[in-house]
Amino acid sequence: MTGASGDLGALLLTHLQRDPRVEKILVFDLAQPQGERIVFHHLDLTRHDAEDELVDALSEEPVDALFHLAFRRGSGGNAALAHELEISGTLHVLAASARLRLPRLIIPSLTAAYGPRPDHPAQISEDAPLHGVDRSRYVRDKLELERQVERFSAAHPETRVFVLRFAPIVGPHMDNVVVRLLSAPVVPTLLGYDPLWQALHEEDAVRALMCTLEAPEAGTFNIVGKGVMPFSSLARSAGALPIPVPGGLLQTAVRVFDTVGASTVHLPLIGFLRYAVIADGRRAAEQLGFVPEYETGEAAGSIRGMS
Amino acid sequence: MSRGVLGNDPFRRGAAARPEAETGEAKPPSKSAPKKRGAKARKPASPEARSAGTAAPTAGTAKAPGRAAGPSRTPQRKGGGSAAGPSTPRKRTSPIPAEPGAEASGAPRKDASAATGVAPSKPAGVKRAGSRRTSPVADQKPAATALPPAGAPAPETPSTQRRASTRHLTPVASPSPATRPPPIAPAVPEAAQVADVVSLPPRAPATSRPGAPHLMLVSEVEPPVEPPQPRFPRDEDDLATRATRALEFARDLAAAGLQGPTLTRSARVGRGLIRAALSGVGSLWGQQVDPYGRDPRLVEDLEPLAKLLYTHYWRVTVQGAVHVPEGPVLLVANHAGVMPFDGPVLQQVLTRERPDLNEARWLVEDQIFHAPFFGTLFNRLGALRACPQNARRLLSEQRPVIVFPEGAQGLGKPYRERGQLKRFGRGGFVKIALRARVPIVPVAIVGSEETSPLMARLPGSIFGLGYIPVTPLGPLPLPARWMVRFGEPLNLDGAGPDDADNLPVVQRLSERTRDSIQGMREALLRERGGAWFG
Question: What is the pTM of this model?
Fold first, then answer.
């Protein structure tokens, strides 16, 4: 796996270590993780020769599956690095996979990539087009990544490529824009709107990743939590107080706070306070065998250790 | 004009006669200012109607001066009328066979009664015809109240009689707009009666084929002169009576609201309202919703309010609920009123009348679904955004799905055009039904247009809206009386999933649905009478 030091990667690593079916875990990262059965390779995916290093290591010790989780959430000065990691890092991984004829490749994405739009059906299926999120470079990079992966899997049918589109992953170990939004004491909502949200508990997210190790059929899957919730109720479940704010004011306020660095609201998230993006998780249940255990509300509650 | 035909047998009617033009004028509001509005509404209609509209002044003035002038004027106007547009083809659609003999000239009364004999009230009507001579207004009322429940061809008959009788007074111009729609059946007895009673033999031949329609035209000219309309049989009541009725209604409503353990009840209604408001704002605690956003607890909280509105405020009456088959079905209804109360009402109708069915959902257009407060609230009550994916998904769950193909156009109808169904989208509902192999059940709703009437549209571009609707009570509903009728499942002519891309088939079925709804609506309107009280 790559990116074992990320929040999701670290969680997956512990799960893999616990799994008796796992013989050995090759970790490609900058920081060395602790644990048994781990073979660590120091690898910087943003370097130009990362592909060769990856191929060398993997041809010495062939693997059954590669989790590509080396992503960063870019903000401020890290944006360029995040972009580089996302795009060229993925390119390296894909190229190496092609050379190695890797059996399985697992890549995470986001349901947010469908974009906060007025024209979504109540449950978005995996075939729906990805529209991305305005002003979110992170999601834009994800779209680019999905395009790359799509081209790759078309050209390399021998590799089973799993793209998992995760609903916002929340949990005590997660650190992302949604978790930061919900862990603030006060959460602004858009006055007059209360769109439905999904949230995925981190444990469920990892279980979905584990499911891909044995799933017979590759493809793109929405990975979502159990049930949906209006955003205000979700915020309450997370222990925050939702305060409805008129639209224009919210935009301005968030911009101002963002500029001074005090905002808990990621600007591109505002769209999701208006339009629901609810993905249909049926395909994952049928083909991947993944059924979430946590309710959306429980998942939100777990951010603060409530449940 | 083909209203009666439509009302009688929506399903047998082909797409030959489009009701659009007529409907606008078919039900001129007539409540406050029947004269003006009637004429206005008529204008954009068919050519005949237009000519009738222009003829109006003459007719109006002609009538008032006296009956003496009538006979002599008749031929003249008749000529003008027939020139305007004899719409003979409509005769084909008449359910009652129009006998050429009867039309031709001075047909004996028997013929007329044979043609219209369906109506139970006929003899009475005839009798009244005699006594009516002196006060047309007064006897309009009994005739109108004698209207049997719509749907059957019956309603036409009394009006026919009435028209015939009024003709005694004013041979030329017959009032009774009700007779306008039933094109041919009335025409026959009319001719007969005219010949018979007024004894104008030369006139009768003229009223033969081309005469029939233009007689109708002439009659169209009249309604302004004579206030009562069969649609609102009680409109001729004086102000005091109406006020009394309004008071009675208010009393009943108050009684309903306060009866029983008053405090708990009103508290529950109030609690429902508050929770609904909070939900719309997005500040309701602990909402648990289903995958589509419906909050069953909120629906439960609103039940007392819904019951009050349903039973006492809107007094919803339902017909033909048995026509809704079990399993997946597409319920296609007309759409009107600024606030789309018709969706929730129809859902209530189904839960109350057909508890055996799966829970129905209704689809709302984007403009509503994404409207602040109301979109949120409607979603919590079970509305989904109208799109094919959602419809398919709901149908696959074996649910009845309520759709309003008129969409936002239906909501944007000005009050005076409320009787006129808008274009039924691009037939998307037909495609969905064909692909999913589910039946289409047409549903006519009366009352939504008066509940939240669009009085004016203000420019709303600064708020990012197409227009700002002006309604009497803002988003709050008025106490219009509602009627809902379910038709029989549409005859699809054996069309299957393969025909979903066959545009002519889709269009034909879409049009058939629309005609059916239009027909049922007009029947309901006649049956309902006054929109508000009584």
Answer: 0.69
